[in-house]
Amino acid sequence: MKRELTYRAVLEAFSARRPDQKVWILARPYAPRLIAAVLMSLVISGLNGAIAWLIKPAMDLVFIERRHEFLIYLPTGAFALYALRGGADAVQSYLMQTAAFKMVRDLRNVLFSTILDMPASEIARRRSGDFVSRIINDITILSRILSDSSKTILVQVPSMIVLTGVAIYRRWDLALLSFTLLPFIALITRFLSKYARRKRREVQGILSVLTHRIQEAVTGIKVVKIFGMQGVKSQQFQRENLIHYRKNARLVRLKEMSQYVSEILAGVSVALILGYGGRLVIAGEITSGDFFSILTAIIMAFTPMKKLGSSYTALVEALGVLDRIEELFAIPIEPADGKRVPKLVDGIRFDKVSFHYPGHIEEVLRELTFTIPRGRITAIVGQSGAGKSTLADLIPRFLDPTSGQILWDGICLSDLDLPGLRRSIAVVSQDIILFSDTVRENIAAGRTEATFEDIERAARAAQAHDFIQKLPDGYDTVLTERGLNLSGGQRQRIAIARAILKDPEFLILDEATSALDTVSEKAVQEALSHATTNRTTLVIAHRLSTIVEADQIVVMDRGRIIATGTHEELLEQDPIYREMYATWKDREETGVLIAS
């Protein structure tokens, strides 16, 4: 039976009140390894106790009673005990670390899938580096709960109990004297750990900012260079990196202070044992073997105590990181249910649709009411900032209206099955996103079951086949990040091929030919004419030819619809469209692209 962490288990963990409950639920799938690790820890604890226990007979027999024949057994016995303890420790450590690795693997899988299921609007509101930091850095630190802190607790707690039992059995008053300072160690550790938890959250927060800065600089390197921003960006990164260093340094100081206090108090305890125990040996109340057995047990017991203090601090730190991961799971994911999406018969209707972005009062779209008829091409035109792209984002529900509704044959989009809705839609935008996969995989993104013949047919329709064949490995050429080893026109033609292969019921072209030269555009326009035949299409127009050939043109200005009609009707009836058309025609005749 395959054991792994599921989304349901993660939600259950984060709904628990206490941190220990959260950690247990997250670790529960790996219980067999953890149980085996616990058994190994008990073996280690027993061997630690045996080492301390055997000090008395060894000392008394060999050095007090001078039975030197037993001397030969001391090295052999010591070697055997340490070899067994080392082996048990290695097995226990392997079990704990692999359990931690499994949790990291599964939690990253769940978190990544959860991010993909979040609304696009929620993802857009956050820095991409923040997501990367939480998936990579935060979860790695969280793994310390199992690999380091939990390992220490499982081994050292039983060891401390066994060793304390040995010391008390040998001489209870001497043992209790040495442990009088334990409450002070516990109180100081608890106080510093709470502070460390808050500091760890701050460290991880600034680390996510640094991750974002790196991504931002790498993806926007052309802008950075052309505007000479290297110095500005470098100083910005150095400033934030310095903040990260200082916060990390404070965190280290806290942990080392906790260690130092533990060392001081341990030293005081050992001093008390040496002083009081030495007097007992001199007075003849205990033997040298008793004394060294107690001393060994207590010194060995203080080692786990100090480790427990450090582990507790690390554990509390990790729980601070757990809070950051929990914040992402608090974001609601997109609904996966709803009515089956029917074949479009009449069209898509906007009914008094308004929209404003979260945190902004001004509306980007204001009470839009119009219909996109089935099987027809509807063009949206308007100056930059009119709200055209925002309107297009509402149909696949990358955004949802703040008021009004969008109807698919009379059914509100919010009532439809969202994955089914998006399967019915393809989008080709000006900002082309290609993945670091082969050309073949990028074209087949919307239809992974497509045959190579289907992929090649779509590429030919998008006028992409010829340049693909000239690539080093043809259709198996691996693209770099965002497909930047292709020209802008080549990237757009692959995106158009991807849309053609998907064969959607509804096609959105958001300035889809903006990066093409005139020759390429003519070829692609022919392909798009074939792709849009009898297909419901929404075009955010960039070229005059696209606007003129549309069945319906919607003119927008400052988030409102100011006119609707065919090209001829708008030329005759609407002065604003007439002026826009004259400007566009003049620009196209002089070879200047339309800036919409």
Please characterize this protein's 3D structure:
With 596 residues, the protein is of the alpha/beta class. Helix content is 64%, strand content 10%. The protein contains 23 helices and 10 strands. Helix 3 packs antiparallel against helix 5 and helix 3 runs parallel beside helix 8. It is elongated. The two termini are 57 Å apart. The relative contact order is 0.08.
Order of strands across the main sheet: 6-7-8-3-9-10
Quaternary state reads single chain
CATH superfamily of the largest domain: ABC transporter type 1, transmembrane domain
Please report which band the strand proportion falls in: under 5%, 5-15%, 15-25%, 25-35%, 35-45% or over 45%.
Answer: 5-15%
**Percent range for helical residues?**
55-70%
Strand-pairing-aware structural class: alpha/beta
Unreliable stretches: 592-596
Q: What's the total count of β strands? A: 10
Quick synopsis:
64% of the residues lie in helices and 10% in strands. By secondary structure, it is of the alpha/beta class. It has two domains: 7-329, ABC transporter transmembrane region fold (Up-down Bundle), CATH 1.20.1560; 336-420 and 538-596, P-loop containing nucleotide triphosphate hydrolases (Rossmann fold).
